[in-house]
Every structure is written in C-alpha cells, then in structure tokens.
Amino acid sequence: NIWTYSFRSVHIWQCSLVWEEEKYEAGIKWKFLEHKGPYFPPEYNPLPENLNFYYNGEKLKLGLRAEEVALYFAQMLDHEYTTREVFRNNFFKDWRKEMTLEERMLITDLEKCDFGEYHNFHKQKVEERKNRTKEEKQVLKEANQKITDEYGFCMLDHHRERIGNFKIEPPGLFRGRGDHPKQGLLKKRIRPEDVIINCSKESHVPEPPAGHQWKEVRHDNTVTWLASWTDNVQGATKYVMLNANSKLKGEKDWEKYEVARQLKSRVDGIRAQYKDDLKSKQMGTRQRAVALYFIDKLALRAGNEKEEGETADTVGCCSLRVEHIMLHDSLDGEKCVVEFDFLGKDCIRYYNKVPVTKRVFKNLKLFMENKQPGDDLFDRLNTGMLNKHLSSLMPGLTAKVFRTYNASITLQQQLKELYDECVGTEKLLSYNRANRAVAILCNHQRAPPKSFEQSMANLQAKIEGRKEQLTLAKAELKKAKKEAKGNSDTKLVVEKKKKAMQRCEEQLLKMEVQATDREENKEIALSTSKLNYLDPRISVAWCKNMEVQLDKIYNKTQRDKFAWAIHMTEKDFEF
DNA sequence: ACGCATACTTAGAATCAAATGA
DNA sequence: TCATTTGATTCTAAGTATGCGT
C-alpha cells in the first residue's frame, strides 16, 4: 500500500535528518541493492525485400548495417535538421563507416541518395501504429507492463523502488540542441558488453542477455546508480538510476530545499559581503562579486566552462563573454542598464534589460576594457573558485542554491501578495501567476504549442458566443423587471433571470481569465520550476490554507515525487 | 591551479493516453 | 462515436558540482 509505505518512509526520513550520522557512514548510499539489469531494445529487424534504396537513380541493395543506419536517417526526413549541412555531413561520415567496402566505394555523395521508399515505409508504420484497435493496444500495454514489472523495479534496503530509466537508449542519430557540432552522428547500439552493473555483493547478480557478458559487475555502495555505459557520441557516462519517487531521491530533494532555507536566513549577510567585495582591490574578488550579484538578482546559472567544438556554444554566468552584454548609461528612462543577450542551457535565449547599481555598472565597464567581443567577461573567475568561496560562507552553499532559494522565496511572496486579489476570482489562477513569476525569473521557455493559434481562436470564439448570450440574458432580465411592477408572482421570474444572467457573467469571466492565463503561458514552461525549484511544502501549505485540493496543483507523478513534503507539511509551514 | 573523470540534477521536446467536444 | 485537444509520461541531452592526479 503506497500510503502506509509513504508514511513509514517519511517517518524514517524525519529520523534520518536527526540520526543521519548514525544511520550510514558518510557517503554510503545503501546497504543492499538488487535488480535485474537494464532492458535492451529489440534487435534490428531488416526491411522487406521489395523495398529499395537508390543511388544516383540506380537500385541498390544495402547490407544490413548500412540499411539500418540509412533507415535512421530516412525516418527523420520530415525534420528540418536533416537539411542542415552539419547534420548531413556528420551522418554521412558515420554512415559510411557502417558500409561494406563495395558500398563505401560506390556511395560517395549524400545528394545522390534516395531514401524515399524507406521513408514511406516508416510513415506507413507510424500510420499503422496510430490505427491499432483497442484490443491490439491492450495486448501491447500488457506486454509493456510485464517488462516494467520485471525490469522497472529494484530492491534497495528492504524497499521495492521504481527505477527511473531502466531501458537502454536505442541506437539512432544524435540530435543535440541548437547548433550542435555533433548533430547527425551515429549513436551506436549498446550491448551488455558495454554495460557496468552495480549491485550488492550478496544480491542476486542480474543475468546478462543470453550469449552475452557484462562489461563489469561492481559493488559500490557510495553511488546510487544501478548500471552505466559510455555514450559513443559525447564520451559521457549514462546511468540507470532510481525514480524521483524513491526514498533516496526524495531525501536528497528535501536536503536541497533545507540548504536553500538556510540560505534564506543568511542571505542578508552574504549580500552585504558581496556588495562590499565590489570595492575590493583584487580584480578576481570584484569579478566574483559581480558574478554573484547576477546569480542572486537574475537567477543565472553558474556557467561551467565547456570544451570548445564539443557542444553548442552556450554560456552561464561565469562563462559570459563581452559580446553577451551591452552597457547603457541610460535606457528607457533608467540609469546603468545592462542588456543581456546570450544562449543558455539547451540553447534557450536569455534576453533581459536590467538596471544595476552604479558600482556594478562601473565594474562591468572595467572588466570590458581592452577586450575583444569573444573574450571572457570574468577572466579571473570560474565556477570552481566561486563555489569554493560560497562554501566558505555557508556549508553546502553553491551557485545553484541561489536559484533554488530565489525561486522558492518568490513563489511564497507571490502567493502572499496575490492572496487578496484571488479571493473571489480563481484561486488556481493566482497560483499559476505565482508559478509563472518564478518561471520567468528562471527563464524557463518552451516552443509555443503547434496548435496554439487555433486553440486560442477557438476559445475567443467561445467567449464571443458567451458575450452574446450575456447581452441576451441582460435584455431578458430588463424585460422581466418591467413586467414585474410589484407583481409578486413575476418577481420570482425576475430572480430567475437575474441568476441566469449572473451565471452567464461568471462563466464569461472564467473564460476570459482562462484566455489570459493561456496567452501569458504561450512561451513559458511552468513544469520545470514546479518540479525542480519550488519547495513543495510551500504549495502543500498553500493548498491547506486555501482549501484547494492538492491534485489541482500536482498530478499523480508530482504527488509521488513530493510524497515526503505532502506528509510532513502543516498549514503554518514557512519556507 | 589545471585538466579530466564521475555522479548527479535540470531541461525542453517527443510521444502517449485521457479528456473533451462536434 | 470518432477526431481533436490537452495533459501526463517518457526520453535523453545538457547542465552543476566535486574529487583526483599531476
């Protein structure tokens, strides 16, 4: 039973905060871990014989390996990125590596390749998938459930826990975000021989698939992952880890917010400190102070340095370059304005014009002196130095704690501020508004939904319809009033008409509010902050105080993830 | 101080499933 | 009842942060 389980877990967590040292030695994450190993995607299924690939107009039967990789490309043909030079070149280079000698000799120009039949085959498959009957869907669902039951859970210290990503990533063409230099490269099939298994010595070690061996089996209880492999495109390690609703992840999440709350009580001192540091004789200290000012005020990310040419060109605070900011002594009636324009994580553009203090402004001018646009703004600073400084100010303090702290405190403040105006109107709307303020602060954007304009127009049409209805209702009310003239019989009718009119008015207002909400949300993603930055206890307490059902705010997955907060939070919780 | 490896969180898009309405 | 829309879930890339060897 999930509820007793969760309740018991929270009980354990509450103890663990107090007895942390006693429970495990530092760095030990578990005592027992058992699982079935990751689930591998199905082997490649060759195309039907009658399907052809054409090179330079000539029919050509590709070998299995070349065919498989060609199909990856053919499947993507509807996407814009298959037209990009970098993508095409990378794909072609890697595809040729999979060819036989003869194929490689013959196929030397991607432009001469015709994947049309492969592409159509794929589209047909997608269509078939879409048109599956209820029964077929049911059968597939059950088969999937069986896989999840077998591979999707593990035993960790007497708890059966869900695994977050127990499926090995299938092969395909790498799709980085933005202008990625490696887009189109072949992401190779992962075999058991590539996979490291991590589990208890005394557990039942997972069986590798028939005829295969694991790369390694280790028993490291200082880490939380169950399996890992190296991705051939980036050379990065990928991990199989627990689901967010697990005790291990929940505890970590709780800890994160507790650190952010500690920052709350010390932030005044820390701010005073970095304001003071703006005057330092040391250039490095001044740069650190300005960077911290940005991180605190604008919720910028730390900005680790990245290897050039390996990823898209994105930056965070410490890696800002001169070209990413513009200084305006005065702009739109404000003094000392900094104009930011850069690509951040996932190539999301950060654009903002912010008035800053005179001292910060002067420092920025100084940092930019005698520099080229491509030079680092903070040439005496990196994230390591910044975090080292921060951890000396408060244990556990790093740059990203500021984002968590500022996000959560903003939510709490906004909810308080919006409290008055949301009585009477929609409570949920005010919650969304507060959530949105945070999303804007953290620059969480999304591509507008494909059907946004259409759905907006539909809603607008409905509003118009309701408006007409309202005018009608008003007219009827007036008429009824006229006819009433002290007649107690018709007074009832007047009341009825009045009620109808009011109901109509309410519905109209609700729709208009919904329209505003949706419009304001067009390019803003609320889910990221809700899931990663907002202390769930703020939301749980708000729901209790406002008498709003929690499932109006959090869906099932979110309630699972925040089970710890749901059970421990009282009405009077304050971040 | 650095360069690199490791482990973990955060991120938006793609896909799938449920709800809604013609 | 079917098609469309919306919301939930899955996927995996892209960050942060820290430790280690030189």
TrEMBL record:
Q: Which reaction equation describes what this protein catalyses?
A: ATP-independent breakage of single-stranded DNA, followed by passage and rejoining
Q: Could you tell me which Pfam families the record lists for this protein?
A: Topo_C_assoc, Topoisom_I, Topoisom_I_N
Keyword DNA-binding attributed = yes
Q: Please name the catalytic residues of this protein.
A: Y533 (o-(3'-phospho-dna)-tyrosine intermediate)
Which PROSITE patterns does this one have?
Answer: TOPO_IB_1, TOPO_IB_2
Gene Ontology BP term (one): DNA topological change
Q: Which InterPro entries match?
A: DNA_brk_join_enz, DNA_topo_DNA_db_N_dom1, DNA_topo_DNA_db_N_dom2, TopoI, TopoI_C_dom, TopoI_cat_a-hlx-sub_euk, TopoI_cat_a/b-sub_euk, TopoI_cat_euk
The DNA topoisomerase I eukaryotic-type domain extends over 173-547
Coiled coil start-end? 123-150, 456-521
Claim: Coiled coil is one of the keywords in the record: yes
Purpose: Releases the supercoiling and torsional tension of DNA introduced during the DNA replication and transcription by transiently cleaving and rejoining one strand of the DNA duplex. Introduces a single-strand break via transesterification at the specific target site 5'-[CT]CCTTp site in duplex DNA. The scissile phosphodiester is attacked by the catalytic tyrosine of the enzyme, resulting in the formation of a DNA-(3'-phosphotyrosyl)-enzyme intermediate and the expulsion of a 5'-OH DNA strand. The free DNA strand then undergoes passage around the unbroken strand thus removing DNA supercoils.
Official protein name in the record: DNA topoisomerase I
The gene behind this protein is zgc:173742
